[in-house]
Design brief:
The complex is a heterodimer of chains A (205) and B (212).
Chain A: H1 10-30, H2 36-49, E1 53-54, E2 61-62, H3 66-73, H4 77-92, H5 100-122, H6 127-152, H7 160-192
Antiparallel strand pairs in A: 1-2
Chain B: H1 2-23, E1 32-39, E2 42-49, E3 59-63, E4 69-74, E5 80-84, E6 91-98, E7 101-107, H2 109-114, H3 123-139, H4 147-173, H5 179-211
Antiparallel strand pairs in B: 1-2, 2-5, 3-4, 3-6, 6-7
Classes of the chains: A mainly alpha (205), B alpha+beta (212).
Chain lengths: 205, 212
Amino acid sequence: MHISEGILSAPVLVAGAALAAAGVAVGLKKMDPDAIPRVAVLSSGFFVASLIHVPIGPSSIHLIVNGINGLLLGWQCFPSIFIALTLQAILFQFGGITVLGVNTVNMALPGVICYYLFRGPVTHGRRIISLASAFACGFLAVFFSAILVALSLVWAEESFTAVAELIVVAHLPVMVIEGLITLFCVAFLKRVKPELLGGRHEKGA
Amino acid sequence: MKKVRSGGISLFIVLLVGTLVLISAPARAHKVTIFAWVEGDTVFTESKFSGGRKVRGAKVAVFDREGTQLLEGTTDGEGEFSFKIPTLTDLRVALNAGMGHRAEWTITESEIREAGGREDVGEAGGQEEAQSADMPRQVSDDLSLSKEEIKELIDESLESKLTPIVKILSEMQTRGPSITEVIGGIGYIVGLMGVALYFLSKRKKNSGKGHD
């Protein structure tokens, strides 16, 4: 889902960069010193996940894991994903430096949205509700990313609905897989470190 | 207490990342590349996602030096697309694989000249050359081969000899990230974390001293 260089027009790039900068600033402000290792580790996870390909469908798709990033980090997933995307752009030539802002927003914003949507339900006492919302969190984070990518491409491609449909359909397998990954992570963390899911690590929250 | 907590979490996530690295060992990546080369009067292009997956049915547009579009086509089942060189100029071949995937390759005018492509298109400059080329041809009539014929023969055999090399080059272009780059990236992240923690711990110490 990385948008390459040379597709987007300058206003979109600038808007993306501004939004990403704001998100990273909020994330850094909310970052507790104790949370730094967690952000770093989840950032590494994001960095590596994009190398895992899902060989289904006509296009080239890979894992994104922005759902679990958002769920565990809240706004801090902005710096986490920004660093990972920067390294991917430099080392792998995924995306690019000029599109870094747009790509950061496309991946991190859904994480933040899912954080607010699912932080409560995931900690719900009933196991079925908690796990179902974990699945929805992983699934929807990718879905929102697909929509955001289509939105960023509106000025470059002909029609939003066609592009959005294409991206969403291509990423359906990834959505399901990420839903399952998030589900297993939440199930594991609930057993081992339930306080991680409480959203307690955020200073402001 | 806090230490124990983050220790356990880190261990869990380090293990998770470790498995991810292992899974991705035949590292496949997410980038498109287009590779174009000239053979005679035709430009061949090959489009791949890095990792070697072919880009099928993607749009390829060809632009000249000024950025005006000369022609457009679609990649076939092998991710290939070829076209006759329309004019003698620098050609910019742009691939749009959809969903924000884009790649470019430039073929310079000199490359096309060297490949012997479309001498007839550069007509203004070509006429003089044709005149001067006539003379040696007449002279070489009594010889068995003219300069041009020799050149053609050499070009032909060179092209067939170079084809595998061109293929290797195009494959190198599309190779996914290596394990070194992956480990390197994780190293950077851990390093950044170290730097952040270092400064924070310094700040803590200083503020601690202030309280004493």
